[in-house]
């Protein structure tokens, strides 16, 4: 595994990312993008990207034949509906959860931000700094209570991904978010890669005992610091989300390695793609693979020679040579609905959202107070 980035340097990057809400702790671990186990593969991939880019820039290589009949959302829809498109990979950031009402703890003036101010954090990201957490876990659990899964409903964009899976098109969904809304939307755990970990499982920081979501919820809502129940162990129990100073989950590395080279269509939404290693993943798909980017702003995601040299490629939305990159300026929900409409899935998506939201409301209405004894077995 690569050494971890210092929280200070991650912080600068994260603060530049306007789209983050619960998309924390973005950039928690540095460059652990699935290639540490095989550095040779990464090097060859980077060299390939670079040489391919240079060759094309210099007019030495013809661009690959476009798989899109037109470079537009309609073109993406036609391709997605075709037999040729079997393996869709989706990547999402905080923007996909915005309409669920998940607050951005970094916005001054919000109750959440004001709540945290009383804890004298050196900077907002300290909340996700593992060394700060070890000293003072309280601010994190205050934030966790406000953001807790179960308090929010998945958005139409989440259900669009579920629909992609139901239609047999989804290879994998990579999320930077820790809100578990993909799981709440019914997407199979096997289809999800939670790049920054998840609230779904929890472990004692001392002895490694695993605790369930329900157990953790009970502790957090009782305003106590979750403490290990193992005899003689008083370790703090922490959700398995990735803090600054921790490495990304192994599953992230494994799935990046497996999935990106067989991706037929890449859909990126609700992330400004400013932070590694997530940002560079867009360059891991084959050169012929169309890429759709749904976001409120194009940001600096487009190809420029410097980033191309450093990271290999980037998007080519505005380039004459663009044969595969489509930018849809929209919220994730609006972009997904429009794509669903073009696919003829529009009504199905609306019905799915309405019925699932109704089901969640009904379940929450009759949910008894959380009960105890949700301890799980020890994990090694
Ligand atoms: Zn313990």
Question: What's the short version?
Answer:
The protein has one domain: TPP-binding domain (Rossmann fold, 3-Layer(aba) Sandwich). It has 13 helices and ten strands. The strands form two sheets. It has a six-stranded parallel β-sheet, sandwiched between helices. It has a four-stranded antiparallel β-sheet with strand order 6-4-5-10.
User: How large is the count of helical segments?
Assistant: 13
* Biggest beta-sheet profile: 6 strands, parallel
Q: Strands across the major sheet, in which order?
A: 3-2-1-7-8-9
CATH topology: Rossmann fold
Write down the CATH class: Alpha Beta
Number of domains: 1
Domain Deacetylase sirtuin-type: 66-346
Enzyme class: transferase
Active site: 196 (proton acceptor)
Pfam families: SIR2 (PF02146)
Overview of the structural elements:
The protein contains 13 helices and ten strands. By secondary structure, the protein is an alpha/beta fold. The protein has a single domain, classed as 3-Layer(aba) Sandwich (Rossmann fold), CATH 3.40.50. The longest helix has 20 residues. The radius of gyration is 21 Å and the shape is globular. It starts with 6 loop residues before the first helix and ends with a strand. Bound molecules: zinc ion (ZN).
